[in-house]
Design brief:
about 120 residues, alpha+beta, two-stranded antiparallel sheet
């Protein structure tokens, strides 16, 4: 048994992030497929090498609640947004021209005022 870190992101250019964000509740079925090589020390400290066959996998049902809690821990009250460079430059010029101190204020100024949308 080993701990396996699984990187998670709030990058909405990643399809899985959009999928998780769109779910209100329930579980997400995950299937981890493994292959490669494991290097480890045996009881005497000698290096051991073991191949991982292509047919090894692990299934897990991730509660949507756990995903949302994790995003709240690593991205509290925030979201990550990636823009094309030319769009960023136009947005930056708008920010400078209007003397707006924060990116949130730039977007709030540009977006129409509406009731907050809940997911």
């Amino acid at each position: 048994m080993v701990d396996l870190p699984v990187p998670c992101t709030f990058d909405f250019n990643v399809a899985s992030t959009k999928y998780f964000h769109g779910l209100a509740d329930g579980d997400v079925p995950l299937n981890f497929l493994f292959s490669g090589t494991v290097f480890y020390a045996d009881g005497d400290g000698a290096l051991q090498v073991t191949p991982i066959p292509w047919d090894k996998e692990a299934r897990f049902r991730l509660p949507v609640r756990a995903w949302n809690e994790m995003m709240d821990i690593y991205y509290p009250n925030s979201a990550w947004l990636c823009l094309r460079r030319d769009v960023f430059e136009r947005l930056y010029q708008y920010k400078v021209a209007h003397g707006i101190p924060t990116w949130e204020q730039v977007l709030e100024k540009m977006l129409p005022v509406e009731e907050e949308v809940t997911r």
